[in-house]
Amino acid sequence: MTLPTQPGSPESVLGNQEYLRIFQPVLSPGDIYEIDSSTRAIYIGPNSDLAEIRLAYYDKQSRDPTLMTLADVSVNGPFVGRLDSLLATQYQGLGQPGRILAYPVDIVDPAYERPTGPTTVPARRYNVPAQIDLICALKDLPSIPEVRADRTYRFPRVPFNNDGGMDDDGSTDLVIPIYGRRMVTIQLITPVLTEHETSFFIAALQPGQPVEPKFLGSIVTPSQSVTNTQTIVYRASDQWSSRFGDGVTADPVMPTYSYTEVNQPLAPAKGLADLLIINIRPTDQDPPPGYSLVDLFIKLSDREA
Length: 305
Description:
Helix content: under 10%
Number of domains: 2
Structural class: mainly beta
Number of helices: 1
Strand order of the largest sheet: 10-13-19-15-16-18
Distance between the termini: 45 Å
């Protein structure tokens, strides 16, 4: 069995640094990262899209026949304590050195595509790659951060067709990893005389099967003579009867936003998700031919501030 070795691990030790860092895009849900150095603590780094990572390490007290023990590391749950990578020892029956292994608990699908009907297929889709950022402390640290840094995306000049073609509806999908994020702030900047509808979805991925995302709501931006900026805030604890409601289209021209309240067996909170999908499409009115452009500013946070 061949496992991908983290580049730069020996340099981290030889350079007498205080930590070893695994920071790179996650290529598949089966990625495994090898850690050759013994550590004093392992925690999620500031730039990680993943919120939860599993560790496997050699433990002679383990009840597993391979003498392998598992431990999870999450955004607010670091592994604190000495953890040895035993290169001169082998996992029983595996023929592999007893180094520390790390792999995602979060499901990663770099090519996720939102299921649609035959008449609502987006003309284009962009998937933001999910990054793993895992830090292994090689010395005792005075403190260990338990939240990630805020993550900012800027998407200038996102195109969408004014009139859909034969095989698509002219729209654009943006697929953004938000594993464990509690708040998302979106600013949508629309140039003069650009009419469109922006829809928002979240998806909790499942291994090996397509996932239908949850529709949060949409905003219709009418044609205006000035540049229009709208702000949309999504919180994991938001109720359906907040900004968008449950599947209600809100018109920003109106002073208030309508919503629909329904009786549900569970509390109507949006909750956490793996992916945020933003779809920008032309409205059903008669637009001119060609395409239009909008700008998006998106900030992700672990705090509902």
